[in-house]
Amino acid sequence: MAYVWSNWSGWVKSWPKTMLEPATEEELAAALRLAEGPVRAAGSGHSFTPLVDSSGTIVTLRHMSGVVDHDATALTARIKAGTTLRDLGPMLFDRGLGLINQGDIDRQALAGAVGTGTHGTGGELGSLSASVEAFRLVTADGDVVIASRAENPDVFDAGRVSFGSLGIMSEITMRCRRAYALEETGGRMAVSDVLTAAEALRDANRHFEFWWFPFADDAIVKFLTETDKEPKPRRRRADGEETRDDKIFRAACEASRYVPFLRGPMQKYLTSSSGRYSSTLTEPGRVRWSHEAFPSDRNVRFNEMEYAIPAERGPDCIREVAAYMRDSGVNFLFPLEYRYVAADDIWLSPFYQRDSVTISVHQYHRQPYAALFAGAEAIFRRYEGRPHWGKLHTLGAAELSKLYPRWDDFQAVRRRLDPGGKLLNAHLKRIFGEA
Ligand SMILES: Cc1cc2nc3c(=O)[nH]c(=O)nc-3n(C[C@H](O)[C@H](O)[C@H](O)COP(=O)(O)OP(=O)(O)OC[C@H]3O[C@@H](n4cnc5c(N)ncnc54)[C@H](O)[C@@H]3O)c2cc1C
């Protein structure tokens, strides 16, 4: 039987010999013992890099979903690693809990999101990986390793961001908070004002981010602030159910693909369709429980590059990237995205010991991205940027080892847990510098 696996954007395709869907940790261990390499775990396939690609075995944990137990005093929950964030939200809420922070979407499997350092925005808030308290890892030999600050601390420090290169996680214990509501406000603001006030806006709001279409003079800001107001339930759209905005945006992407000079006017138009933001506005925002407030639905597909750079250099870096995009002559329509992430202590986290700003460049999935991303990447590298592991970049071991002070310690743990390299595909061999 021929299997085909594809990522969300459709640019990574694999034809593994076997695809396995264990339902228990024992089945997972047996699968790992017998499986033909490279053995790669798949979450929801929302990474843009070929992390999951394999001609051998792809393992998904979609049958390993649910909350195993929770501690209402310590505010932690033990969660099966294949649980999607979308399923997890209501499960935690029913137990009076919520995740501390989340990113743009909630389609990812918990282990997939944790494995690449997936993050939202917030000056005081770390990535999802930074909220991990412990995990259970099944190694390439089928052994189970438990890792936390107290037990196997080197596996804990290496493993929280390790994108399936140490083994396959079966369970993850997440630090949570009591369930909380967020109010969303935002709108259009002059980009010069946003960049001047970026740190003040970060400090005044639990979550602050903005999008900037480089040809526009305004950016679109978004704030989420904690509130005691009564949340309204949100109707979640089914897969592929499009809004009017999705249809307009897709039509704009298609039009600018064929008529590139439209990209400037259309970016200005798309920006102007948001209302102007005023901090003195008394109009209330949308109030929802946190798990319904964080995620958006992304129906217009794209490819993405994202780098984390030192937080204080964020405004200069995004100005430079936007100027490059305007001047390069390369055709694109999507906006830049700008977020804050707090420093952590995870060896391969892009936020290791560094408060960061992340800047993302997107390209519509039907357009080539290489030229656009190459120019942006050269700028990110001058700002000491570290790439998101799940988003496109061209760095190899020589460059990555200089960005991560604990690189060699990570490789030592990886070689100890997977001495035969059964978990390495071509992409991982390149980034780890293995023949
Ligand atoms: C529309 C869209 C929006 C996004 N928004 C954000 C955002 O807001 N913030 C952000 O930081 N990123 C974002 N991303 C990137 C995304 O969160 C990451 O790439 C994430 O890793 C995808 O999770 P996944 O479940 O799809 O995992 P996959 O892409 O399938 O896998 C990711 C990695 O995790 C590993 N893995 C999966 N399961 C396990 C397991 N059980 N044990 C060990 N390793 C495992 C895989 O081997 C792989 O290396 C977005 C991506 C898309 C397409």
Account of the protein in words:
The chain has helices spanning 25-34, 85-94, 110-115, 153-159, 191-204, 244-258, 263-272, 290-293, 314-327, 370-382, 397-403, 407-417, 426-432, and strands at 5-6, 13-14, 18-20, 39-42, 57-60, 67-71, 76-80, 97-99, 132-138, 144-148, 168-178, 181-190, 207-212, 218-227, 286-289, 302-310, 336-341, 356-364, 386-387. It has 435 residues and is α+β, with helices and mostly antiparallel strands. The protein is globular, with a radius of gyration of 21 Å. The strands form four sheets. An eight-stranded antiparallel sheet has the order 15-12-14-13-17-18-16-19, with helices on both faces. The protein folds into two domains: 67-179, Uridine Diphospho-n-acetylenolpyruvylglucosamine Reductase, domain 3; 181-387, Vanillyl-alcohol Oxidase, Chain A, domain 3 (3-Layer(aba) Sandwich), CATH 3.40.462.10. Flavin-adenine dinucleotide is lined by residues 8, 40-47, 51-52, 61, 81, 103-105, 108-109, 111-113, 115-116, 118-119, 163-164, 168-169, 298, 388, 390.
Which range best describes the helical content: under 10%, 10-25%, 25-40%, 40-55%, 55-70% or over 70%? 25-40%
How would you sum up the global shape? globular
Tell me the span between the first and last alpha carbons: 30 Å
CATH architectural type of the largest domain = 3-Layer(aba) Sandwich
Classification by helices and strands? alpha+beta
**DSSP strand (E) fraction?**
15-25%
Radius of gyration: 21 Å
List the strand order in the largest sheet: 15-12-14-13-17-18-16-19
Question: Which stretches of 5+ consecutive residues score pLDDT under 50?
Answer: none
Briefly, what CATH class of the largest domain?
Answer: Alpha Beta
| Average residue pLDDT | 96
